[in-house]
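Same chain as my last thread, 466 residues:
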Amino acid sequence: MPDHDTSAPTPAPDSTVPETPSTEPGVDLSVLKNLSFGPDWSATPSTDALARKMGNRGLGKPGDRPRGNENGGPPRRDRRPTRAPGAPGAVGFAPGPGDRSGPGAPASDGPGDRPRFAPRGPGGPGGSRPPQRDFGRGERRFTPPPFRPTHEVLFYPDDATFRALLKAIRGSCRTYELFEIAQLILQKPERFVMVIKAFPRADGPSPNIFVSQPDHLPFETEDEAIAHVFDKHLAQFLTVEEIEVEPPKGSFVGVSRCGHTGELLAPPNYHLYQQILREHHARRLSRMPFERFTSRIELAKEPEQLAAWLEKMKKSTRYKLVTPAEGAPEFFESLDAARQFLLARNKDAIVRSLDTVRYSGRSLEQFPQGNIRYSVEGLLAQQRRFPLETANNLRGRLRRMKFNLYKKGSKGVSYVCAVKRKFRDTQTVLAEHVQKLITFIEQHPMIPAAKLPHLFLGLPLPAEKP
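reply #2:
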């Protein structure tokens, strides 16, 4: 797919989430020195470069040893039996009217032959074994469904990285391929920033992204973000105290136990049973659906389990606000009551709803598991293979910084240079040695680039290798 020279995209939106300051000292463009770009447009990719781009799939130089197996051993031999000309299964054999070779052939092609493509299942050898798939006869292997991101992710160079990149390009006065620069930026997370936005729904606008304010992590739903804040950053809002109280009194036949954590909850006939279930789910299993949590609850009827729960209930937990608020009670008897009060009074300090968020690339490893992280990781892998969108985003910023971008060749490969191109005409005056070289090339247009120094300077050609 060629790189399209589209108009410069709009710059990345202003950051709505604080970014970690970049400590990248600069971008080392020396890694691009062996790539096929520069003022010499006659250069062609080498065999090694082509093999690397093709993934080394069976490509090798003349004279290379044959490749071995996966364990580094010698090449595998073809153990299939040889066929005489005219025998069933041989090349050029034309089956007759009564011949049964082919997909429906018997298990053996002749006396003493090894069975080939024997039918599996009832009626064939090994009838008790299930039928096996033969991928050589038109059946396809199972392939996973294609990756479908749920969020749009755009990648831009980090400010510190972009400044170092501009300095390196201006200082070298060389021409660089735009795609290679984009791949260089995407190599390390500290070199780029991510702008994330949910795709619009078929029945309405795109949903917002909910950001937890203490650590600025993105979530798809508000409930997930709130549960994360109260699970990881409860100490910023509430002070937890434990006090001695009288244990519950009554007739209890058993005590419910969480099937996921094994923690004793409460007897089903206890008056705070539902409140204890909600608090345990919010504190320990917030990412699990509540119905799935309640489906695994067990009833322990052993006397020692009930005694352990009564001992546990001798200690009660109450919550106080870290920052006192007007109209707030002295303390809250339950976490659920404290959470409802905080969400009603100071929700913006817990979670915010945004349509677009911006993060540094190094923040990706802290993202919670979910569709947002999967979309970023999948699109980042695609851009590292073929960075079309990232190159277009970079193109707009380079143009605004007065860099020159132009295309070369039938494939439309884009190049970047700090020096503006100027075509030579009859009025152009060059240095004497440069003019002699250009005149020589124009008089001998078909000279290979490798022989040009020897023919132009009169140096002896190196001896050809046997």
